[in-house]
Structure formats: C-alpha cells, structure tokens
Design goal:
33% of the residues lie in helices and 17% in strands. The protein has 1469 residues and is of the alpha+beta class. Strands 4, 5, 6, 14, 15, 16 and 17 form a seven-stranded antiparallel sheet that branches. Strands 7, 8, 9, 10, 11, 12 and 13 form a seven-stranded mixed sheet that branches. Strands 19-18-25-24-23-22 form a six-stranded antiparallel sheet. A hairpin with a 5-residue loop joins strand 35 and strand 36. The longest helix has 33 residues. The chain is globular.
Length: 1469
C-alpha cells in the first residue's frame, strides 16, 4: 500500500501563503477579463464614451459653421466692456419714475381743484343736464326693424369713437368724457343730476392734462352719489341682459382716498331670530362691508349669540390684514354656520372693545392701522342701549366709531340701534331688502371721512397696490363658475351620446369591450370619442395650452390682463350749509399702467437675466418677473397681495415660509425705502417652473419719492456688473458721405425687434397704432438721416417748482402744445445706436448665402470641405438644420433659413403660421438666450440644446431642436459681458436619426472582439439610450413618445441613482403663489329651529322624494337633472360674452373607420359572439339624493324593486350590420334626440352649438383649458368624482357601473340594454383657493463627470432591484461641447421603477400650520396720513335715519290708498 504524499502539510506557513498569493495573481487577469467582459456586455462604457465624444464634436462644428459664430464674434470685438454701476443705475431709474409719478399727481390735483370750484356753481333744477352716458352710446336698431330701421335707439346718443392704441385699442373720443351710472343708482335723482351737471366742467381739465402729459392713461372723477365721469369718452361695453356690477365707490382708489386706514370689528348676530331673509340680508351686509376694505385695513368678524366666536377660527383674538386671501377666508366661512340661542350683546360689544383697545399685545406690536377704529353691528334688534359698556370703553374720547345695521322690518328696534350709532360718532341704517344692501353699506364711508373733510386744506394723495383692469373683482369668481358650467354641459352631452350609443348596439367599435371599460367610458365622457389614443389626447391638451399661451403673451399684458396702479385725491364740499356737515364730493384719480413704469426701467440696461421690481409699503409686489397673477386664465384669489418674500427664493435649505433673516432684512430695507447694495445666492426657476438655475445676484434698491414704492434691480454676480458698450453714432454717419445708410445694416436675412421694448414711439396716437416695431424703426431711421433731426430722448423731465396750477398750465399750453403735438415722438438714443452696432455686427447672412449654396453643391473650398461632405447627395439628410439665427443685447433677432435642394415650402409657411423666430423674438428674454448665457460659465464652448416639453404630442415633422451658444466680450481676463447668442434650429426627426445611427455603430478597436453588434450598441433590444439635457429632459431616444419628457417619469429609479451619484443635483423650489382646487359641493341647509315649519319641510321632502323615485324608475329622471340644469343656466344671458373655453380641437377623422384593420377584425368577432349574453354586472346603485331626507326611502325602494339582472334570452339570427360608425351614431343622436324627455323638447346639440357661440366670445383673452386639464393626460384613473356619487376613479367593482339586463318579451331581441348611472354625467365642481406647493428640479453637475479635467463615464448599477436579485447597470457620459449627457441603461432586468416627476405638489398643512400661514405677518409701514379726529366733529348731528313712516309719508300713503279705492269703485260702476 502506497502512502499519499502530504506535501501541503510539509510546507511551512510562509510557504503556504506564498503559494496562495502566486495562484491568485496568476488567475487575476482571467478573473478581471471575465468581469470586464460581462460588464461590457451589459453596458459598453467605452463605446458610450466614444459615441458621446463623436456626437459632441460633430454637433459643435456643424452648429458653429451654420450659426456663423466665429464671424459674428469677431465683428463684436470692436465693442468695449464697461462697468455697470448698479447703485447709480437704480438711482437714475428711480428719478425717472419719480418724475413721471409727479406729473400724474399734478394732473389729479388739477382735476380736484376744478371739481371743488365747479361744485360751488349755482344751478336751477330746470337747467338741462347734457352729458354722454357710457351705457347709452351708438346703439342702433337693426335694419330689419319695421319702425326705425338702422336708426339710433331711443334714449341713446351718437358719438364718434376712434380706436386708440394708447388706451389699449379701445375706441375713444378725446374731446369729451362719458358718465357711467351703476345699476343700483337712479340716474334721475336730483343729487345725481346736480353732480353730473357741475362735473361737466372737468372735460377741459381732462383734455389739457392729456395734452401736457401724453403718457396719461384714463382720468376720472368718482362721485359720492355713485356715478363715474371718465376721460376720454368711451362706450361701456355691457349687454343689457347682464347686471352692471361696477361701482366706483368700491374700487380701492376711491376707498383708500376717501378715508384713512382703519381697524374694524364686525359683529354678526346669528341668534335664533336671524333666519330666512334676515339671515341672507345680514350675510350680504357683511360681504359688502368686507368689499370696502383694502390692504391697509385690519378686520375680524365675530358671530355672536349667547357666546361670541370668531367667524374664522384661525383668526382667534386678533385682527388680520384685509387682503384678498383673508377676505376670501371670511367669505368662505360666511356660507356656513347656523342660527341658534339668544344674542348676548354685552359679551359681543365687550369682546370688540377689548380687541381694539389691546394696545400692549396688538397695536404696539406693529400690527393694525393705528388710525380709525370701528365696530360694525349687524343685527335684527337690540334689547337696550348698553350705555354702561360705551361709558366704560369709549367715552369721552370716542376713539371707536359704532355703525349699526338693522336687518328686517322691525320698526320698534330702530331707537336703540340708532342711539348707539349717534352716541359713538357712527351711523345707523335700516336694511330691509337685498337690493338696497350695497347703497346702505356705503354710507359709512363719508362718515369715516369727516375729520379729513373738515380740515379742508390738506388733500392727501394715495397710491393703490397693483390691480387688474376688470370691471369688478368678483368677476373672477363668476368666470370660474361659467367655466365649470360649460364643463358640466359638455360632459352631460357626452353622457347623452353614450346612452344613445348603448341603445343602438351592436356598435362597430374597434373593441366592443370598450363600452364596458370604465377608463374608456371616462375618456368618452370627457372628449366625446372612444378611439382617441393617448398621444392624440395629449395633443388636444397641448394645443389648448399653446392657444392660451399665445393670447396671454400679447404686448403690454401679463397673462392676458393689464395690471396697473392708481393715484387719487379726495374732493371736498366747500359749500356752507345751515346744518353743520362735512360732505365728501368724491375722488379724482388716474390710472398708471405698470407697462408705463417698466418703460422707465429699460431691460436692455439691466442685461440678460437682470430684472427690476417694485414693492409697496406692505411688502407687496407691484411688478416682478415672477409675479404670476393668473391661474388657467382667470385671476388668482390673491393676485394683488404677493409678498416680496414669496417671489425671491434664496438658495438655502430651510423650511417652508421660514423667516430667513437676510431675505427679511432686504424686504425691510425696501419697505423703509433705503438705498441698499447686497449680494445673495438665489434659486431662479425658468420655463414654467420646469428648469432651475442657482446663482449669485446683486440687489440694488432706491426709493421713489412721494410714493409708497421702492424700486429694486437684480443683476447676476458673474456677468451682470459689466455691460457691452458698442454704438454707431448716427449723427456722424449722416455727416460722413462715405458711410452706409442706417438701413443697409439690416439688408441680410429676416429681422425683428423685441416687441415690448421702446426704441422710438409717438406720444400721441395720430394714426400710428397699426405700425409694427420694425415699421416704426424703419420710419424713424429714415427721419433720423434728414436735416434738423432731434433725438428728443428725455422721456421724463423734472416737474417745475413750484408746481403749475391749472391756470398757469393753460398759459403754458397755449404756447407749446401745438409744437408738442407736432414733434410728439420719443427715441432712446443709446438703445438705437447700440441696435445699429449690433445690426452691423450680425449682417453676415447675405454675404454667406453663396457659401451655404456652394457647400450644398459640393464646393471644394478648404473651409467648406466639412460642409461638402455633410451635404453630399447621400449625407445631406443627416444635418436637418433649418435656420441659423442670432439675438443680441439690443433686442435684435435676425435669422436665415438654410436653402434646400427641393423647392417645397415649409408646411407652417403654407398654412400661414408664423416662423419660429417670429414667435420667439424677445431676444434676451427668451429662455434659450438666458440658458445659453448662464451655461457659458460652465462650458464656454458648449451649445445648449432644448426641445419643447410637449414635443411628443406635436407633429414629428414640426418639432425642432434649438441649439444656442453665447458670445461674450472679454477684457483683461477679468471683465466680461454677454453681447449676443447665436444658434440653429434642427429638425428633431433628423437629429434623432443621426443619434440612432451613431449609437448603433461599433468603434474600431483592433484589440476588441468583433461581437460588438450583438449587444454593445443602442440598436440592441437590451440597451436603452437617451440624450438628456442639463435639467434632465429627454432630447433624443429611440422612443418617440418620450421626447421632451422628464427622464424621471420614464426611468425614475435611474434618475434617483443619478442624483445619488451627484450627476444631477436636486433643488427644492417653493411656489407661494400656487392655486389648488377644492371640491365645491353643495352647501348643507342651515339649521332651522325645531318648529312646525320643520315638520312641514320633512313632509314635503318625503312627498317630493317619492315622486322623484317614480321618475327614476320610469326613466324620466333626465327631465330633472340638477347638474344639467346648472350647466344650462343663463345660456341666453351668457350669449354676449367671449369664450370661456376654446372650441375643441378637431379630432382625427374616423369616418372611414371600417378601413381600420382593428375594426375589420373586431366586427366579425362581434357578430359571431352576438348571441352570447353580456356578462352580468350587479351594482347597488343609489340614485342621487335630490330630496333631502328622502334618501333613506329611495335606498330601500331600490333594494326591493331594483333590476335583478337576470340572464337575457338567446338571440336568434344574424343582426344586420349598422351602416353607421361611432361618429355617425353620435351625429344621428344630435339631430333627433331631445333633452332626455320626449317630443317637443329642445335639440340639445343645437343648444350646445348656441352655447359654443356664446363661449367663442366669452373670453377672447383667456384660454379654455378646464380645471382638470392640468392633470397628467396619461392617467385616466383621475376621473371626475363627487362625494355623493359613485366614481370611476377606483378599480372596477359591482358598485361602479350598473349594467341592467332585463329579458325582453320578444324572442327576436338581439341584444340587451346597457345603462349607465346618471352620476357619470356629473363633474367634480371645483373652486380655486390659494395654497403653497413645492417641487424638486434638477441641475447637471459637470464637475462631477470629470476625472483629472477630462469627462469620463460614470458607471453605475441598480443592485437587487428585482425579486430574483438581478440588477440594471448603466453608464453616463458627458457629450462634449454641449449641455447633454448620454445615458445607456441595460433593460434586461425588469426592475420596479418609481415615478419621479416635476409636477408641483401641494404642501400638506395641518390645521395649526394652515392658521400660522394665514396669520404670518412681516414688517409693514403704515400710511403716512391719518385723519381720525377733528375737535368740531361732535357738532355734526347727522347719524342716520329711521325707517318708520313720518306724518307726511303717512298722509301720502293714506291718500294713495283712497285714490286707488275710488278708481276701483269707478271701474266697477
């Protein structure tokens, strides 16, 4: 037996370890080779790096050549770089704004002086009152009228009105003013007629003001009697069937000028006696009081019975600022609540006085107005006068005024309430009807104004906050209601069509099961079409957004509205009367459009990514580039109370609405009007809050004298403190005969100017309103090269001191107005001469046109060898470049369309659509310009690429890739400033084709194997490749539907991994101007005391409930559909308005549906299975409760008598194939089916058509996107829902859709009847409210992609992302000279991917946090003027009147009754 040699045991420990190391080192290369080979098979990192470098090199040279980057940059080398002194710049701008504001103040003072003098004129009641009524101008009978065809209507006057661009294109007459009288004011009342008569003298003052200052906008005088006189005269556009809601006395310019700021406590009696009509009147009184408040006032509302509680629980024991958001909280709370118990007046009054007198905790803390104080008592009667309370809290100084409002017809309650008001410098009114509420509420304003009026000599002027030029602030709520009504009507009609389709089965659908699919049913209810694809739906939604965006971006408008501020001055009554009084005649004022202020702060002086803003004494924004006042084309609930701290986002990771000390310090400096210079790191969002940039910004602030405003500018830290200075002196060019004419520099290519910048403009609209900016520039340049040219470049001049009175201005006007009217233009000399320099520097396209053509034809010029190769007959399609363009610092945009071999026109040009560059012609304000300049700091050689976010929904042939690169002028390696941005547009289809071609190739490496094509290219089914931009959006991939989308929505887990790998940086953006939609359910009935009336109500409900149940069982429920009735409400009344919603875009043509192969397959299958019964679906369906407490009866009735859904009888024979398709079924229904009843009903489609005509005019300036349009179109589970009704939002259950299958009595019945519950026709009615939202955006971090200064692949792997333990490797490589990265992802492992989107989400506040948000109050500065006391005011005894009949009235009443009785007896005799 041989013994085994145990050689291992014979080795020493050192020898053993040495042997193991040798074996390991010998096997290591093989191990590494296997690992690398396996890893490269999954993701070819080396190939990815090669593709990225090749694509980047190709795109760089191609774009550089076509964009003429080098030549344009060389042409700018003659320019200099100068320092941009921010403090000096903002000081000069503030001086210009101050001068302009002073002219407006002086104009209003002249109106005030003339008004007070004119009111002293003596007139007799017999004198005729001659004036132009704004609501009775230029209305004519139709030509078909039998009595007066084409003649002026009776009571109307004719006045020549001419459209004037200075007044937004509205037809006006500059020689007269017009008078508007509200609906609730009687225009024949003696006091109204007298005021209209003497105010007619203001016409000459209005006209002279306009001649002296052509920048003046609307001038007006609002009378305390209710009417408004406005200059120039214009027609009040309003249909006679619509109520006129406008009342000048409710506008902020009137209220703020009429009385000083005030602290107000409203006490609302909600005791058991305040029911029915009294309750409604009291609510309207409170609502009207709230509408008279402004942002300088503070208020709280208390309900009082046996206890006293705040109407809004969050506003506990405090007063809140009367801004729109807080007022909205009060209004919302007023719609709720109940009446109960007995009123405790002692506790209510004590609570109010305690709150107003709590100086240590309240007024001294910096809150409140610290001026006027008032208690508004709204009740139906008080048991006594509570003299002891007033003696304790208010006498003898009478600091708090008490206003009492008696509700109802209780004459006995007058005495006590009137005594309370008279004893406390207040006013008493008796309100008996809803119609008189507004007029009675407004009577408190002149009382509050008494101290100011009694001083006589001092007329303080006030400046309002920003507001929109709409007729009435409440109009926004009404517009939303109209939109919801239209949305309900559309869905109701689609529901009817769905029912008709179900009744006419069999139906030639691509898939017969569609009608049983809840998502498909929801799609039909929303869009009226079963066959729409996801892409087609997305295209419909995107088209709506594009249409609205085009209207919102009209010149001078911010999101479709014209924003403005106003300056106004009170007008006092100087007449001496027998009874001591202090009457306010009214308020004079003028509007100052924000556009006029922005003209004085020209953006070209601030440069790209620089901006200006203005803040008032409350810290609210007057204008700011991030002010977004509109939500879905309707004004936001708090659009005019956006705080400075809500639009400037400092780059700090802090909690929501955190009190950042540096931000609040800057805000306080603005409010206190200090001159400040500070540097801050900020986050700036772009492109509809989808992109973000972080950078440092310099802030400079300066006060605007004699106003509550501060002006601020922000300049980027890196390049904002320097500017490019390059000009062509126009006067020297004229004198030099060898120089070219100015227009010669615009000879090549197409060009446009920034549509919102002022280069030259005429001060008066004398036939120049139709000229485009380009035509105006051509006109002025031609004038500038003629003798005796003057620049007239001083926009505003300091007001002469002392200021001119109206008489002095007349003498000045007589000598200079004629010349002023003739030479009525303004030109910005610096801007125009910079424009000429830029035009010369960019005048390269004509000179290089031949080069392009020769390159295409294969010219062998050495500089074009590369181009010749690209444009050879086989390679020409690779480029796809359509346009070369350049935009400059002076607002010039010029472009050149690349010539093509074929002569076919661009489809957009054939359709008459504007060119891409004509749409994106705002130069430094375009997103692609801003991004190119910002990205220059990261890579000076890079082109910045982008595609539209909705590219996947557009026609692929029309999608363009935009590539831009910034041109900087540098001096001494320390000073640099951006001069221009060049770029190209590329057809996206060809861009993607090139990308796929390059990533499908294997690089030629001799050392590598030849198996590259098996799995190492993007053509492999196991590898997904994407080109992403610097914010994570997909520029190109082999998946067409992903273009333009955020990468996280496609590969969310990979996106998270890229963030963790620091490829992208996540940046949190907070949106404090967001709007959320709440479900607007029908409010519950107010509680009623348990009286016999309640028993009658229950009985009535029981009867109505049983009747309604009978209607449901007999299929007559469509006669009584509350949502349908709500949708069709006021259709005739709405006929005059513009469109709330755009007409639906044309759907794809499905008339030839039988040609669809899916239909050809579906119909035979459907025919073969026709005899098979549809699967029964049993649903416990509860009809909608329209009868209150009868719901329980209805539910029990259904359980006993509902259809059981038994199996239908077999069908025999083959049913005939219908000769109509889905759309034809719809059309048939539209023409012969009524509104759900029977014969004689109106044709619903005709009604719908009429309503669409209405809506085509309802909002010419707003888009028609529905509130649910903002939801992602990909998710059909987000369907309409209502708390009271079943929803399609949840997975299908037997309670969702009821399919009733009742056997037919006839053996020949082919199919069962399919029914859909009426709840499917209901929309989820919504109402907007302010809220906070947050979103995470992303920024590419280029420095993390570099290794030793060279871009290298970032290798990653999602490990164990599946149950089987597999992973997904990926590779990331920067594409050189671009803002792109190439991402290659192995898709063999089906990992679960989360969705990472960039849609803002509402911040979920609990009740405490919500209250803290509402109560958040930063520093504010109170108005300087406060008039709350005059020593002689107690001599005025006018404090309201009683509603009881006096002896004269009683005598007249008895006389009328006797006369009526005599007349009746006479008729009978």
């Amino acid at each position: 037996m041989r013994h085994k040699v145990r050689w291992w045991d014979s080795l020493s420990m050192l020898q053993r370890w040495t042997a193991l190391v040798i074996v390991f080192l010998a096997c290591l290369p093989a191990i590494l080779a296997v690992y690398d080979h396996d890893d490269d098979l999954q993701v070819p990192h080396t190939e990815v790096e090669h593709w990225a470098n090749k694509i980047g090199t190709h795109l760089f040279y191609l774009s550089n050549l076509f964009a003429q980057y080098d030549e344009i940059r060389d042409n700018f080398r003659g320019a200099k770089v100068q320092r941009n002194d921010g403090l000096q710049l903002v000081k000069e701008m503030a001086e210009d704004v101050t001068n302009m504001m002073k002219y407006k103040i002086e104009a209003v003072k002249r109106i005030m002086n003339v008004a007070e003098e004119a009111s002293l004129d003596q007139f007799t009641d017999d004198d005729e009152v001659d004036y132009y009524s704004a609501k009775k101008l230029n209305e004519y009978y139709s030509e078909d009228d039998k009595k007066r065809p084409g003649q002026l209507k009776e009571g109307y006057r004719e006045l020549k009105l001419v459209p004037n661009s200075h007044f937004d294109g509205i037809p006006v007459n500059e020689n007269f003013s017009s008078v508007h009288v509200p609906t609730n004011v009687y225009d024949k009342a003696p006091d109204v007629l007298r005021a209209i008569r003497w105010s007619g003298r203001l016409d000459r003052t209005f006209k002279s003001n306009y001649e002296l200052d052509p920048t003046l906008s609307w001038q007006y005088f609002g009378s305390s009697s209710g009417f408004l006189r406005q200059y120039p005269a214009t027609k009040w556009v309003l249909d006679e069937r619509d109520p006129d809601l406008y009342d000048a006395r409710l506008r902020s310019w009137y209220i703020e000028a009429a009385n000083s700021a005030k602290d107000m406590v409203i006490l609302l009696d909600v005791s058991g006696s305040m029911t029915g009509l009294n309750r409604e009147i009291a609510k309207h009184v409170v609502l009207n009081i709230l509408e008279t408040l402004n942002e300088n006032d503070f208020v709280n509302v208390f309900n009082f019975t046996n206890d006293t509680k705040e109407l809004v629980p969050c506003f506990n024991n405090t007063l809140v600022q009367a801004n729109l958001e807080n007022i909205g909280e009060f209004k919302k709370a007023l719609s709720q609540g109940e009446t109960r118990d007995i009123a405790n007046f002692t506790l209510a009054l004590t609570t109010a006085f305690d709150l107003l007198h709590r100086k240590v905790q309240y007024n001294k803390s910096g809150q409140g107005s610290q001026c006027n104080q008032a208690i508004m008592l709204v009740t139906d009667g008080a048991p006594n006068q509570f003299e002891e309370i007033f003696a304790k809290y208010n006498w003898p100084h009478l600091q708090v005024r008490v206003f009492t409002y008696l509700i109802g017809r209780q004459e006995a309650a007058v005495r006590n309430l009137k005594w309370m008001a008279c004893a406390n410098k207040g006013y008493f009114v008796h309100v008996t009807t809803l119609a008189e509420v507004r007029e009675q509420v407004l009577k408190y304003i002149p009382v509050m104004a008494r101290p100011m009026v009694m001083y006589q000599t001092n007329h303080p002027h006030i400046w309002t906050g920003v507001y929109a030029d709409i007729a009435d602030p409440k109009q926004t709520d009404w517009l939303w209601e109209v939109r919801e009504r239209k949305r309900q009507m559309d869905r109701t009609n689609n529901y009817r069509k769905l029912q008709k389709i179900a009744e006419n089965r069999p139906i030639p659908l691509p898939d017969p099961s569609m009608i049983h699919d809840e998502a498909q049913v929801e799609k039909f209810l929303k869009y009226g079409n079963f066959t729409l694809t996801q892409t087609e739906i997305a295209r419909i939604e995107a088209e709506k957004e594009r249409k609205g965006r085009g209207r919102r971006e009209a010149p001078g408008l911010r999101d479709g509205y014209r924003l403005m501020t106003s300056v106004s001055i009170p007008v006092f009554d100087r007449r001496k009367t027998m009874v001591r009084s202090a009457n306010l005649l009214g308020v004079a004022g003028t509007d100052v459009p924000i556009r006029e202020i922005e003209k004085l702060v020209p953006p070209y002086k601030l440069g790209v990514n620089g901006y200006s803003f203005m803040v008032n004494r409350n810290g609210y924004i007057l204008y700011h580039p991030d002010l977004r006042p509109v939500f879905q084309d309707i004004l936001k609930p708090n659009y005019n109370s956006v705080d400075f701290a809500e639009v400037e986002l400092f780059d700090k990771d802090e909690d929501l609405r955190s009190n950042d000390s540096e931000l609040l310090a800057l805000r306080r400096d603005l409010i206190e009007q200090r001159a400040v210079e500070t540097l801050q790191d900020v986050k700036v969002h772009l492109d509809g809050m989808k992109r973000v940039v972080t950078r440092g910004q310099w802030y400079y602030t300066q006060k605007v004298d004699d106003t509550p405003f501060s002006l601020g500018i922000a300049l980027p830290e890196k390049y904002g403190r320097y500017k490019v200075f390059g000009q062509i002196e126009l006067s020297r060019a004229i004198q030099d005969p060898r120089s070219n004419r100015a227009m010669d520099h615009f000879s090549s290519g197409n060009w446009t100017l920034h549509p919102e910048w002022v280069y030259c403009e005429y001060k008066y609209d004398d036939g120049h309103h139709n000229l485009t900016p380009e035509q105006l520039m051509t006109d002025f340049l031609s004038r500038a090269q003629k003798p005796h040219w003057k620049w007239r470049s001083t926009r505003t001049r300091p007001l002469p001191e002392p200021s001119l009175s109206h008489t002095t201005s007349k003498s000045r006007m007589s000598g200079g107005l004629e010349n002023e009217r003739r030479e009525n233009y303004y030109c910005d000399k610096d801007l125009i001469q910079s424009l000429l320099f830029d035009a010369r520097a960019t005048n390269v396209y004509f000179a290089n046109k031949k080069m392009f053509e020769d390159s295409i034809n294969g010219d062998r010029n050495p500089m074009e060898m590369y181009m010749a190769l690209l444009f050879s007959s086989t390679k020409r399609h690779i480029t796809g470049i359509t346009t070369s363009f350049v935009a400059t610092r002076s607002g010039l945009t010029r472009w050149f369309d690349i010539p093509k071999h074929n002569s076919s026109e661009d489809p957009k040009i054939q359709e008459g659509l504007p060119h891409f560059m004509q749409v994106h012609n705002r130069a430094i304000d375009e997103v692609w310009y801003k991004r190119a300049v910002d990205y220059y700091e990261q890579d000076p050689l890079a082109y910045v690429y982008s595609v539209p976010f909705d590219a996947a929904t557009q026609d692929p042939a029309e999608v363009l890739v935009v590539a831009t690169r910034a041109i900087f002028i540098e001096e001494n390696n320390s000073k640099k400033a951006p001069a221009a941005v060049v770029g190209v547009t590329i057809k996206h289809s060809q861009f993607v084709e090139y990308f796929i071609n390059e990533t499908s190739k294997c690089p030629s490496y001799p050392s590598r194997d030849n198996g590259c094509k098996d799995g190492k290219t993007c053509s492999s089914p196991h590898l997904d490749c994407y080109l992403l931009d610097d914010n994570g959006f997909i520029i190109a991939s082999d998946k067409k539907d992903s273009t333009g989308k955020f990468f996280g929505t496609i590969e969310g887990t990979i996106m998270e991994s890229l963030v963790q790998s620091e490829v992208y940086k996540r940046v949190r953006i907070l949106d404090y101007q967001a709007v959320c939609l709440d479900s607007d359910m029908e409010p519950s009935s107010s509680s009623i005391l348990y009286t016999p009336v309640q028993m009658i109500k229950w009985s009535f409900n029981w009867i109505v409930g049983n009747i309604f149940w009978l209607m449901v069982k007999t299929h007559l429920y469509t006669l009584w559909d509350p949502n349908e009735a709500w949708a069709y409400t006021h259709v005739e009344r709405d006929a005059q308005y513009p469109v709330v919603n755009d007409p639906s875009p044309d759907y794809p043509d499905h008339k030839d549906i039988y040609s669809d192969p899916r239909v050809e397959r579906a119909i035979p299958d459907y025919m073969a299975d026709e005899a098979t019964a549809v699967e029964e679906v049993v649903a416990d369906y509860e009809p909608p409760d329209f009868s209150g407490d009868a719901a329980e009866d209805e539910s029990s009735g259904e359980s006993s008598g509902g259809g059981s859904g038994s199996e239908p009888e077999e069908a025999s024979g083959e049913p005939p194939v219908p000769e109509y398709d889905v759309m034809e079924v719809t059309d048939t229904y539209d023409t012969d089916v009524g509104s759900g009843s029977g014969d004689g009903d109106a044709d619903p489609e005709a009604v719908l058509t009429d309503y669409d005509d209405i809506l085509e005019e309802i909002y010419d300036d707003i888009d028609g996107s529905f509130p649910d349009d903002s939801e992602p179109y990909e998710d059909y589970d987000n369907v309409e829902k209502s708390v009271a009704f079943p929803s399609l939002e949840t997975p299908t259950t037997t309670e969702d859709i009821k399919v009733e299958q009742t056997p037919t009595p006839s053996e020949d019945k082919k199919s069962e009847k399919l029914e859909f519950p009426i709840e499917l026709a209901y929309i989820n009615k919504t109402k907007p409210r302010p809220c906070d939202k947050e979103v995470n955006l992303y920024i590419l971090q280029n420095n993390k992609l570099k290794q030793d200064g060279v871009y290298k692949p970032v290798k990653g792997k999602l490990s164990n992302c599946h149950a089987n333990g597999c992973g997904r490797p990926f590779s990331v490589q920067k594409v050189k000279s671009t803002n792109l990265i190439l991402v290659a992802v192995n898709n063999q492992c089906k990992c679960e991917s989360r969705n990472v989107d960039i849609e803002p989400a509402e911040v979920d506040y609990n009740e405490t946090m919500h209250c803290n948000r509402l109560l958040l109050s930063h520093f504010r500065r109170r108005p300087q003027n406060c008039y709350n006391y005059h020593p002689e005011e107690t001599e005025i005894k006018l404090c309201g009147g009683a509603g009881s009949l006096g002896l004269p009235s009683l005598t007249m009443l008895i006389s009328l009754v006797l006369a009526h009785m005599c007349y009746t007896l006479k008729l009978h005799s």
